[in-house]
Amino acid sequence: MHLAAFLIAGNAAHSQVLWRHPDSSPGGFLKLDYYARIARTLERGKFDLLFFADRLAVSTRFGGDHRYGVGHGDQDATRLDPLPILGALAALTSRIGLGATRSTTYSQPYSLAREFATLDHLSAGRAAWNVVTSVNQGEANNFGLRQSLSHDARYDRADEFLDVAHQLWGSWAPEALLLEAGSGRYANADLVSAIAHSGPYFNVRGPLNIPASPQSGPVIIQAGSSQRGQDFAARWSEVVFGIQPDLPRMQRFYQDLKGRAAKFGRKPDDIKVLTAMMPFVGRSRAEAEEKRARHNALVDPIVGLSTLSSHMNVDFSGYALDAPIADLEVAGMQGLFSLIRELSSERQLTLADIGRMYASGVLVPQVAGTAGDIADWMTHIVAQQGADGFVITPVHLPHGFDDFVDLVVPQLQRHGQFRQDYQGDTLRSYLQA
Which residue of 31, 190, 290, 401 is surrounded by the most CB atoms within 10 Å? Predict the structure, then answer.
């Protein structure tokens, strides 16, 4: 199986009480040493990659004001730019893949292609790009748009963006760089090509001003769960990150996404589906359950509803907390909102209940048990074609991955479910091994 670590360069992760946890380092998320320790732990655990989720605004949708999210420390209260952090981590690690989120709505293909080609060179082929289309009004407000793009328009732009970026990464043939000091030939210009792209959203001449990188472009990560989002993922992604609360939903998502690969000329195994999980590891099941209860006791539903409002681009402050969630059309994360509506109906949840679930982990399943219990659960999910691996999300940091790496990973290795060491020289080769 494959393993990735989910991070935000800030105070939270999927857990929005992470910064409040007694085992977290207060303010550590503003320091490089914090991320260096996390990355070294994950590399010791032979993780395929770590990646930083990102957004380009504080939460402003709930109550029409930033005070709720910033005041309570929700998922968007602080987000450092992940790419400079990854540049530093490239020098402090040697094997683990390094992923950053960048938006196709608020970036330009040429500058983004340069950023990830640079990271791929400096990391010797470990770069990954988590592609997002950006959903909320707060981001639109920060980039001069009166309203965010519609759902389909975001994906139309993203399709063209990925096409241009891949053309730019391919504009230098791998053998184009010569560096023949004696003859003065720097490169074979016949092997460097302009792309001359002209489309509805972008006009880019090229070529890129960076030679071909070790992976000829980063590994592409995506997390779309709407119908259009899954088509986009099936066309472009090498890693798809999913949030599903139980095995039947994991299986449906897995089969649906893999089944779309053929219409884009790809094989199902070209796409690795990694489902999110939040582990609570104990020496006994009782200890693990106590850890989970201690974490969840910190939850305030308003924190979750602030982030939910941001994700869905809907202000939930005007709805009754003790009533079921309204049947709304959302402009934001449509696949995730469909899941919320399903769970609300099945479990008779109120809006406050959804807020608590969202604050504790954004619907990511919490798995509590001994190292053996958790390894068995993961093995079962993969065996039943619920996933090709997992995105592990922490409940405190910078030590939040320690128990998983020191206790769960060895269990997986002993049973032949996970690598003993890295196989290959690049992130893409790990995923294909």
Answer: 401
